Structure prediction request, 129 residues.
Amino acid sequence: MISAVIKMISKTKLFNRALKKGNQELVETIVACKSNEAWLNIGKIISSSRKQMPAVNLDRIEKESKEGEVVVVPGKVLSNGEMTKKIKIAALKFSETAREKLSRHKSEMITILEEIKKNPKAQDIKLIR
Prediction:
């Protein structure tokens, strides 16, 4: 369902959706995605309603990622499961318990906006939703 939404949203509609958001950091992230073609699909996902934003557990990230990879979660990272790999996770939000588990394994947690600034071409990222 989300993939169908991704194809149909124009940059103008994406910007209009951003203006309706109350969270300033979310608005800045959507605007940064809109201005960067490589991050446009992520912007379309995070501009959707909160109900459609994915919540991903650590066990799924553990299963689908490799050591040293950059993983982008366009939603919230939840704490179900354990993380044994050292990876970098860019997400909109992290649950408190997920933060604790990730910090124990020295995994890096950043916002999607920070990752856009560090990696504007979106090279070597893995999207998990």
Remarks:
- DSSP finds seven helices and five strands in the chain.
- The longest strand covers residues 70-78.
- The chain has two domains: 2-51, 53-127.
- Confidence is low (pLDDT under 50) at residues 1-5.
